[in-house]
Every structure is written in C-alpha cells, then in structure tokens.
Design a protein that fits this description.
The protein has helices at residues 11-25, 30-39, 82-85, 94-105, 117-128, 139-154, 201-204, 215-224, 250-260, 280-285, 311-318, 332-345, 348-372, 397-400, 405-417, 439-457; strands spanning 61-65, 68-71, 76-79, 132-136, 158-162, 207-210, 229-234, 264-268, 291-294, 305-309, 377-381, 384-388, 420-421, 431-432. Helix 8 (215-224) packs parallel to helix 9 and helix 15 (405-417) crosses helix 16. By secondary structure, the protein is of the alpha/beta class. The strands form three sheets. It has a seven-stranded mixed beta sheet, with helices on both faces. It has a four-stranded mixed beta sheet with strand order 1-2-3-13. Strand 5, helix 7 and strand 6 form a beta-alpha-beta unit. The chain starts with 10 loop residues before the first helix and ends with a helix. It binds pyridoxal-5'-phosphate. Pyridoxal-5'-phosphate (PLP) binds at residues 84, 138-140, 143, 166-168, 235, 240, 268, 270-271, 295.
C-alpha cells in the first residue's frame, strides 16, 4: 500500500485567503449588488429562490451561450454550475432553441396532451428500464408523486429517506437535508429534522432517516417499523454534499430489503438522471428500482419533471383512483425541449464526450492533489464530479460534516475569481459538464484549482 503524505489545511491561512479573494470578487459584481437593491424593493430578498442567494452575494446573470455564462457586470465565465446541473445541453443550444421557437409559434399551453409524449416516454423507458411515465414541472413534483405512489399502493404512511439528501421542497420529504449537527441525534437512530420552518410535526412523524451506504441500519429501520413502511427514496449517488457513490451491493440490497418488507424503492435521479450516463444511475449501478424521479437535465433547460414506474405502481392512476395531475404537466414548450434534448442532444455519443472531459478533469485534479499533498480526493462519474476535502472517504452525510466549509468556500472563490462559474459552495456542490465543455475548459478548472492548492499549501 502506498501511504500518501498529506498536509492538514491551515484554517487561519484559509481565513486570510478568503478575505483577499472576497476583496477581489466584490468590485467585479457592482452591477449585481446594485441591481439587487432595486429588485428587493418588491421581491423578497431580491432573488427568486432562497438558494440563489448564496454567500458572498447573489450574482445576476445576463445570458449564456454553450459552455459560457455572462453576468450583468459583463464578467465572462465557463459555466460548471449549469443551473444546478440542469443545463447539460449547454446554454441556448440551437436544437433546443429551434424546438422551443417552433412550439411557441403553435401555442404555448393547452393543458391537453400533445404529440411529443410517445417519443419522450419511449426514450425514458429505454434509458431507465421502467415502462410507464408521467410528466410534471420540477424535481419537487416528481418526488412528491413518488412518495404518494408508494403510499397509495401499500396503504401505508411511513417513508424512509437518507440523511443529507434533498428531494425538493414539499412537506413529505424536506427533512434532514443539511441538518444541524446539534440536532441530528445518534447515527443509529437519526432524528428527522425539518429543513424549513412551517412543516407540520405530523409530517415529521411519517419519515424515518437513515445514513447512506449502511444496509444494516436501513434493515433496522424497516424492522423497527414492520408493516408500516410504504417505501424508501434514495439518491442513488448522493449529489448534495459532494458526490458520494453507493458502495457495491448497497442499492440492490435496498431494493431487496424494500421488497422483503412489502415496500417500494424510489430512485431520485433528479441530478443523476441523463447526466452520469445515458440511463443514469439505473445504467451505471445496474439496479432498476420501482420508481425513478427525473427533472433538471431531461428538460433541456425548461421547468420539467418525470415519474417513471412499474405497471403495478401506475395501476391506481390508470384505474382513475389516483389523480396525478397538474395544469402545466406536459406543457408543449417543455415537451418540445425535452424531446430535442433527449433524442438530439443527449444521445449516447454525448456521454462518451462527457467521459473524455471528465477523465481530463479527474487526472488533472488528482495530480494537483498528489503534488501538493492535499487531504482531498476526486470523485464522480459522467457529467458530474467533485473534489472532496477529506483524507478518508466520505460515505455519508455525517462524514461530510468533517469538512470545514471555509475550504470549500475558498475553492469556490478561486474558481469564481478566475472565470469559472460554480454552484454554491455551501453544500459542497458538484460540478456539471455540458456537451459544449472541452478538455481546455477542464484544464482551466484544473489550473484554477492548482492556484488554490498552491496558495493553501505554501
Ligand atoms: C436530488 C434532488 N431531488 C429533487 C430536487 C428538487 O428539484 P427541483 O428544484 O426541480 O424542485 C433537487 C434539486 O436540486 C435534487 O437535487
């Protein structure tokens, strides 16, 4: 075994570097800071969503093109944020623009089905190996329906979820997303911690939380709640605290466990679907769950979502006993963009392209980590990856708590100040690649990272 010499992060130095980088960043965003003051007169906080207000300040965007993004101050970036991973088609892709333009000229909304449905359904069935699909407008709606489908088909109310996973902002599952360490309770029995104010206590009582990558504790949760669990929802690879891969056998073990207890397994593939491989996590890890929730990448940048499931699970919907409804479900603009994204842009070749850029990213980042002796490693697959600032593998949310946020913030500042737009650092966000990203873009990312590594290690 090769023992790697590493140098611990010097947090005092990191604090100093943060101050320097913030001082450099602030003047670059004068227009954003100014515009926010105007917006916040009548828009709460001056932003459309709380998670667009990541520290140090919200950055307002002017436009995007391919792999590039321009903010309203005129700064140009290579975009690795890509709208929280939704824009793997890149910005303003001509095929998506054409599809949306054509659809818009024919009417933007009917609340009636249109003739894109069969092609999209067939494409998703091919990718994710589930026969039946419905559409919605966000990842939140997709997981809401997954929770309800599992409950409807079992007549049970309890759900099991993973500590540290986010499944959207509805009341059924917005628990223990980034829970405060002071509130999480023992690892063997994590507390179900609401992520937002205003979620009724009654919902909390319907959710059990377990750590990722621990089959024994999932089994225990099922056994302690025998006959009461409708199903379990899991992000097959966790993507909201860096990328955490499932250990071999874990996902299949969960599926067997759910079925042994007369419950269902749902994969939340909102982030992994159509990004980590053509067939998402189903393809990469070779496990077909009972339900797959999709959103983000499948819509080519439009508000989208999809729920795939077995015929058994869809039976109450087909029988008219369960209304899976929404005014904008299957909206013609979303369907046109989705069809173009799935059949013309995110073809099997696209995933080979992600593989090439991903290999360059990982090779470069690993080499920097090695040379500088950083206690960190690189992880991810396909269009998704992250540097994890830990010497030992992060297998679950509680391991990720050991990473000081100042490190991820500084890494973010170094990229942002050097022309790389990244997702907010607060949850150790991943990077996303688009079909426009090249090995030169990967090199840019690596070069910035090398500057960060040199600064913290010197
Ligand atoms: C894994 C996962 N599920 C669900 C959601 C919710 O999706 P949306 O923001 O489209 O409602 C997200 C959003 O980031 C997510 O990462």
């Amino acid at each position: 075994m090769v023992v790697r010499e590493t140098v611990a992060f010097d947090l005092e130095k990191i604090d100093r570097l943060i101050q320097e980088e913030e001082a450099e960043l602030e003047p670059k965003h004068r227009a954003s800071l100014e515009y926010r003051k105007t917006a916040e007169r009548h828009v709460a906080g001056g932003v459309a969503s709380s998670w667009q207000d990541s520290p140090p300040h919200a950055i307002f965007v002017d436009h995007g093109q391919g792999n590039g993004l321009w903010d309203i101050d005129g700064n140009e970036y290579i975009d690795f944020h890509l709208g929280y991973g939704a824009m793997v088609v890149g910005h303003a892709h001509p095929k998506i623009v054409e599809a949306i333009e054509k659809a818009a000229r024919r009417g933007t909304h009917f609340a009636q089905p249109t003739r894109d449905l069969d092609v999209i359904g067939e494409n998703l069935a091919d990718r994710f190996r589930l026969p039946l699909w419905r559409f919605c407008n966000s990842g939140t709606e997709a997981t809401l329906e997954a929770a309800r489908l599992m409950r409807a088909n079992t007549g049970r109310d309890l759900l099991i979820k993973i500590e540290g996973s986010y499944h959207g902002h509805h009341d059924a599952l917005m628990f223990s997303v980034v829970p405060d360490p002071a509130k999480i309770g023992p690892r063997e029995h994590p507390n179900t911690v609401p992520q937002a104010m205003g979620i009724p206590k009654a919902f909390e009582e319907l959710v059990r939380v377990v750590p990722f990558n621990d089959l024994a504790l999932a089994r225990r949760a099922f056994e302690e709640n025998r006959g009461r669990v409708a199903g379990m929802i899991v992000e097959p690879a966790m993507m909201n605290c860096g990328v955490i891969m499932p250990e071999p056998g874990y996902l299949q073990g969960l599926k067997d466990l759910c079925h042994e207890h007369g419950a269902y397994l749902a994969f939340d593939e909102v982030k992994t679907g159509a990004t980590i491989a053509y067939g998402g996590a189903v393809e990469v890890f070779g496990v077909v769950p009972d339900i797959v929730c999709l959103a983000k990448a499948i819509g080519g940048g439009t508000p989208c979502g999809a729920i795939g499931a077995t015929e058994e699970l869809y039976a109450p919907v087909l029988a008219g006993e369960y209304d899976m409804a929404g005014t904008f479900n299957g909206n013609p603009l979303t369907m046109a963009a989705s069809r173009a994204a799935l059949t013309e842009v995110l073809t099997k070749d696209a995933y080979e392209g992600f593989g090439v850029v991903d290999a360059k990213m990982k090779e470069g980042l690993r080499s920097v980590i090695e040379t500088r002796g950083l206690p960190a490693y690189v992880t991810g697959v396909g269009a998704k990856g992250s540097v994890v600032y830990s010497e030992t593998p992060v297998r679950e949310y509680r391991d990720a708590l050991g990473v000081d946020e100042r490190i991820t913030y500084l890494a973010w500042l170094f990229q942002q100040n050097r022309g790389v737009f990244k997702s907010p650092w607060t949850k150790q966000e991943t990077w996303t690649l688009s079909v426009w990203h090249t090995v030169d873009d990967a090199q840019r990312y690596v070069d910035n990272f090398a500057e960060f590594a040199a600064a913290v290690a010197s």
